[in-house]
Amino acid sequence: xxxxTVRYIVDxxxxxxxxxxxxxxxxxxxxxxxxxxxLERNGLRLLLNQPGAGGxxxxxxxxxxxxxxxxxxxxxxVSDLKSVLADLKEQGIPFRSGIIEGNGGKQVLLEDPSGNPxxxxxxxxxxxxxxxxxxYKPEGYATVTPYLAIREAEKLVEFLAEIFDxxxxxxxxxxxxxxxxxEFRIGDSMVMIGDVQDRYPxxxxxxxxxxxxxxxxxxxxxxxxxxxxEKPSDQDYxxxxxxxxxxxxxRWYVAMAGA
Length: 259
Fold this sequence. Notes:
By secondary structure, the protein is α/β, with parallel strands linked by helices. It folds into 2 domains: about 5-125, Roll (2,3-Dihydroxybiphenyl 1,2-Dioxygenase, domain 1), CATH 3.10.180; about 145-255, 2,3-Dihydroxybiphenyl 1,2-Dioxygenase, domain 1 (Roll). It contains 4 helices and 16 strands. It has a 4-stranded mixed β-sheet with strand order 1-4-3-2, covered by helices on one side. It has a 4-stranded mixed β-sheet with strand order 5-8-7-6, with no helix packed on it. The chain has helices spanning about 15-25, 80-90, 155-165, 215-225; strands spanning about 5-10, 25-35, 35-40, 45-50, 75, 100, 105-110, 115-125, 145-150, 165-175, 180-185, 190-195, 205-210, 225-235, 240-245, 250-255.
């Protein structure tokens, strides 16, 4: 087995040893001095140095002292990221982010006691392409999916959860933990939401949703900050309908058949 070696500068070697062995499954292979230790886990060797200890902990020629922290990190694969995250949070382990989803899988950043980041990664399932006999659509998606590009997208996410019982399917966050892109299920449909930055203008939309109770949905929407566009009323084509604009500027028509 090939061994990959990574070195972290830590504030206290003993504290770091306790963290990595107790929470992340590393084993101590060497601990010859108070300021240095070598740990291993599945072919990964992690060297720990306190500032001033060993060659790696010495001051640089320009006078800079090696310190912990930064963004470069080791990656540890797990099979169930959600349960691992819940277990470590229960033990009081600090995290820099929630679960971030990308094309290759899910990841989350935790911090060791010195502030060094560690990435826990759950690989995604391989997706068969249409060329190889798989579906050209991801499972659970229709052919057409609305996409709402707005600012402060998490406020809209909360609104949709309250009004339409929207369920989170996938969320991607930026390195600082802020919301970037999300996909949410409303009934049997999916809605995508993007949080735009200053260089991109918002692009709200107009959507039509069938609900079981138009009047109650309309009432709840207004209670949660929506603006009325059209009060509930029976239409001559056999539906009851209402309309409102959500706090992010999207217009929603809600309807039910058989009115």
